[in-house]
Amino acid sequence: MPLPVTIADDSTLSRKLIARSLPEEWKPSITHATNGREALEAYRAGKADLLLLDLNMPEMDGYQVMETLRTEGLHAFVIVVSADIQPRAQERALALGAMAFVNKPLDAFQLNGVLKDFGLL
Q: Under a CB-based contact definition with an 8 Å cutoff, are residues 59 and 30 in contact?
């Protein structure tokens, strides 16, 4: 059964780059979300065993997604993929429950390293 992955980013190009960076052997079932609300809908629909989440999106940002997951007691495996490389952004994301923080532009090697560190690869 393919791994359900949701990629949440308001940039179509970023979503495509992230999708291409996932391990080929996974053959994941990928759902694309253009904002945080769509990401939460995908999670609730069982389409996000792994949630790759941008922080800066319209309607609902990545921080709000993680706050909602926490408030509702939902346990998602979240990896933040963001161009906001400020230490404060990373600290806040990790405090809200992100498992890891990967910088944009995305480096597939770095993402695969994170996946390997958490036993997903």
A: no
- Kindly tell me the burial class for residue 77, based on how many C-beta atoms sit within 10 Å of its own C-beta (0-12, 13-18, 19 or more): middle
Distances (CA, A) of 20 to 7, 17, 39, 93: 11, 5, 19, 24
Distance CA 80, CA 82 (A): 6
Which tens digit of pLDDT belongs to each residue from 6-48?
A: 999 999 999 999 999 998 888 899 999 999 999 999 999 999 9
Q: What is the pTM of this model?
A: 0.94
The domains located in the chain, with CATH, are 4-107 (3.40.50.2300)
Residue 31: closest CA among 10, 15, 11: 15
What are the start-end ranges of the H helices in the chain? 12-21, 36-44, 62-71, 87-95, 108-117
